[in-house]
Protein 1
Amino acid sequence: MINALGLLKRRQFLPLFTTQFLGAFNDNLFKTSMVLFATYEIFADATQESFFNAISAALFILPFFVLSALSGQLADSMDKTRIIRLVKTVEIGIMAVGGAGLMLARTGAVTLPLILMLAAVTGLGIHSTFFGPIKYAILPQHLDEEDVLGGTGLVEAGTYLAILAGTIVAGFIYHSTTLVAALTIAVAALGWLSARAVPPAPRLGPKLTLDYNPIRASWRLIAETMHIPRLFLAICAISFFWTIGSVLIVVFPPLVKNVLTADASVASLVLAVFSIGVAIGSVIINLMLKGRISARFSPASVIAMGLAVLAFWWVVGQWTPAADGRLFDMAGFVVQPHAMLVLLTLLGVAVFGGMFVVPLYAFLTTTVTKDHTARTVAANNVVNAGAMTVGSLAVGALTATGVTPSQLLLVVAGMCVISAIIAQRLHRACD
């Protein structure tokens, strides 16, 4: 991974990395600002907060399920760079809509601002659906085969560092809706500029006949991909990982507010620690594998992740809440007896999660020929999105029946066991 840092000097990689970094930063800045604003300024009920978070997560994921097949076909049938520039142009408009929703919410209105904010989240989901296959599929086209794992790790680490930055910034400025709106539009414009520098990535294979029927196209895409054993296992393992991630992201803000009795700055800290952990895990696994694409560490990594989730659940259960009517700020939170254990166990969850998922993405882009990479990643996105949508909606349903955020952590631990079984089968099939 250290050697892979040299890729940042290459014109074939740096503009793509920058564009992806800015996009991930902006997505997370807006989504985190929206969730924190809704949690701390609009709603005053844990059930409503969890339900809103689950709905917003589901709306972001839904376009992956509906449109990934089309996005994969487009990316494999035309210049990938042209698509990147188009989606970055659209991002500017999406952020304008979201910013308007945030500013209207500050006036005391509720219904229209929520509609605009959720519309923007859906738009960001569409934006990511069309950009997602390209950020991985373009790597084998621009990099030598021995650099693909390093490039994948850098993209993954950069994404989570961007999420970290967006989370931290959102925690400080979410209450200033005008500033959030202005900043997200400005970052979208910078992303548009960096996209102009991404080198061309023309179609490599024969021209495709596009299928615009989302159900038929998705079914064909999955059928054409999932019959390859190691792709099937890699996609299933990644899907379980992101389902786990979707549950955790939905759970964190209400858990911080209602269980740890802490304010929005601590919610940002928790999300930031998670992002740092995944980035660290991405670096560690690249060093351990030394550039070789292998799943041999994935089963142990996800088992360790499950144990870290159980440790996090236990520590949260020992927490002493703040006095009635009070919330810990960051300074007050970090001096609590169990605060460091909360953060360390959460860091462990994220580090082992990063170690688990990075090699699996490398499988997707190196198992098939270069003219099929985008469709392979898109097939993965369809399956991931279906699993994540179910996960997000399940959180909303379980919360409505009285299941607490801390109890949902036990569900996550159980899902890690399933992921480990799948990863072990992948290891046996490939290594």
Note: The domain at 11-199+215-430 is CATH 1.20.1250.20 (Growth Hormone; Chain: A;).
Protein 2
Amino acid sequence: MKSLTINASQRESVGKKATKALRNAGQVPCVIYGGDTIVHFAAPEIAFKNLVYTPDVHTVVIALDNGTKINAILQDIQFHPVTDKILHIDFIEIFDDKPITMNIPFKTTGNSRGVRAGGVLRFNLRRIKVKGLSSNLPDFIEGDITNLKIGNKLYVTDVASEDYTILHPDNTVICMIKTSRTAVADDEDEEETETTEAPAAEA
């Protein structure tokens, strides 16, 4: 999985007044949990652009101004209800030997038989919740839909891997091929053609 580095400054003052001053200066107050101690830091809002405003997932290296580097993942983020500015971010420290839980983006491969016949690909899940070591987690999970006909479904069990554990029930549907008006119309036209041609064959 890809990793981003965020250069940040550790902060000692964590009160409301100090937090407000940071935001007024264009800084985002953040916290890292999960380690031996809770770490408070701040970084410019623009530093989080490639982490927050993207469909991709990343691990993060928080490079503090005291030389400390902490590996982490984004846990929670708060936005201003009006301006959508980032107000606060929570991170969880990660370790090489401890599994983590993440929502990994899902992508399809192949050209579905059902879609070629006029069906429509519908998604129930855009991200799949998995658990595993950070070094084993992929940037995205792929599922082949080539053989899916109209009415067929792709389940989470179809994209299982030894590298991680999927945290959804086995009967969870990722996507399916649903019928459409075009597909129904094609079926009706085919039936009409067969009915019309039958008498001619008897004559």
Note: Residues 33 and 127 are 24 Å apart (CA to CA).
Protein 3
Amino acid sequence: MISSLRQKTLLFVITLLPQLALSAEPQGEGTLPTAEIQSFVEIFETIREGYVEVLSDEDIVKKALKGMVSGLDPHSEYFTKDELVDFNELTSGNYAGIGVEVELRDGNLVIVTPVDGSAASEAGILPGDVVIRIDSTLITGLGMQDIVLLMRGEVGTKVALDVERDGEVKHYELTRRLVEEESVSKKWLDGNIAYFRISQFQGDSGVEFYKAIDEIKQEHPIDGVVLDLRNNPGGVLQSAVAIVDAFIDEGMIVYTSGRHDISKSQFVASKGNTKLATVPVVVLVNEGSASASEIVAGALQDHGRAIILGAETFGKGSVQTVVPLSNGDAVKLTTALYYTPNGRSIQAQGITPDLVIPQATLTFNKGQFFVKEAELKGHLGNGTGGEERTSADVALDLSELAKTDFQLFQAVSILKTLPKLIQKQ
């Protein structure tokens, strides 16, 4: 005989299941997994009656739902109403916190990337760092929403992080602040080369990027483009599509495929959106380039439209869909995988650059002495009236960018060389 409590619990679970089915294929025609439901009811009762602290029925069910969804993969989550509001704030690019994109990987909280201009970035936190403790709380066993709540707080309040890097634990004291981030920045580099940095793909990043192109074109023509996607954790798919569309005028950009027809989609280029169809492009990526960044790099690589330079990317090639529930909560569920135009899956593999160049710190031999012809007493002038160059000119050309950003230095060197190679062909 089933107890009255168990009958009520069983009825509650059976009523709840259709809301969470999300078009899953049934095990049999019109059947429910009764044995599994019975096990759920028994566990529910055991927790309700025997757990050391008193929990409401709602608390127990919420924890069960969160565990069920988060157990699927690192990117699926169950959101309560309040958590859904927080999630929407994060994707809008306007929130209070320390500014990091994190990933739970085999129970470890790994920094995917610090957000440009954030407290974490300025403190020196790096991609690949493993967070061990937030304030006095160890990360072990915590879910993603618990971690987010620990990291976020009121503007001006402090949070302490213990971070493991290369076997050494580092301690950081960070002050939370409002992150109001424009996702696209621009500047000129040497030789009419335009530099665009996209820090993450927000809802309006495509509009920002097109505006940045128009503004910089008004100053003078663009001879080459560096698109910097390093430490960009991804974001909104449509914004990534818009970025690629600025460089190609036809063909596939990305497609998705999953179990159901609703998860199958294709995104193709449109001539009306193309702004830089022929300008040489180098895309910078690294281990912190994930998701939408990998879509952009993979598409431009498959179309032969850009040289991809840097380090192998993160390898997040899955699609998450936020599915609202009737009670106001929502499920962020992995529903498909991304594929590049040539059919490559990014998932758990990433994009391998055309030129694998690690970020490095160059040191120049101090006191190295050399002399150029122009420094010899009585030297002849240039036969065509060209400007003379001394050893000091050579040292100045090499030192600054090569010292501060070796990968960017290599990208600029390629873009300055490409026109000369094309002319010789």
Note: The domain at 182-356 is CATH 3.90.226.10 (2-enoyl-CoA Hydratase; Chain A, domain 1).
